């Protein structure tokens, strides 16, 4: 029989967070090995539970969740999102500008599907959250990666961004707070991105899913709050701030200058209708989450579990010879660098395989985030302190062995 091939549109798509190395980890688990999973920000498995009031509200309303909702979502949660955007100083947002989705991920793909024709280009950060690159590619577009500069706290390189704009460029993606680096962008930088978009008539897509996971008193500013003369599309949800990944409850907000985007918005409405609606139980969680006690503030405050674990992970990684890491100001991740003179890595996926096989610790290689060289990897700092000490201790021993095997000295 003729082989059935996957679509050519998948040629440029990778999602290594759940790729071949995690598949090997799954096989090892089936063989009885205990794997420490530092590869994915799945908070619940590490004991970070959603607020009880969200869970109770979903239970109470479950009997009312069997029918389809409005294709954009129920009125009450969308109104709660509208108030949330007002609190973020994003002006001019009405109920009709808000779309609820099965997580922000669904809406990211929808937003690209509605925009891109074959050959259109979108500026995406490197490193990025790989769904963005995949969504652009699957929509027929070309992801063009602008560099974020590790020497400048992982801030986007504005001049690199400028050089990569062509007549085919349609939009700029800004992931702030950033996954995988944990960077948080200052207002001055956001204004530079806005000016670049203004000069070239570009849309700004803002992924702000970690906007409450902030450390050391840091404050997040939504880029859409800083201008009214551009089109902004902002994404957020319950997965991270409210530890509700599995509820698949997110939202997308269209703001700024919309008069020239009527056709695009019609496309968004069409796609929202085609998927009928987002899951109703997850929608019932939104109003309670946004209006309730913000327990994330306790987790990131001095003495809070997330802050303590960030500091511990930073300390443990920094103590490994040849490993350097920018201390994250936000989010749940670190993106350490392996000095190429000490760790001569040609294939970072193979490096992740070897680390997994020898230590039972699962990471994601930097190329999985479209980074340009095989010299980085991403870890989460979600396991409890004892488990992190154990995991990073095994990692340090592996690194020592790796240096010896490859004749590198420190």
UniProtKB/TrEMBL annotation:
InterPro entries: Ala_Aminotransferase, Aminotransferase_I/II_large, PyrdxlP-dep_Trfase, PyrdxlP-dep_Trfase_major, PyrdxlP-dep_Trfase_small. GO terms for molecular function: L-alanine:2-oxoglutarate aminotransferase activity; pyridoxal phosphate binding. Its cofactor is pyridoxal 5'-phosphate. Its EC number is 2.6.1.2. The keyword Transferase applies. Residues 34-386 form the Aminotransferase class I/classII large domain. It comes from the Bacteria. Keywords: Aminotransferase, Pyridoxal phosphate, Transferase. It is an enzyme of class 2 (transferase). Belongs to the class-I pyridoxal-phosphate-dependent aminotransferase family. This is alanine transaminase. It comes from Duganella flavida.
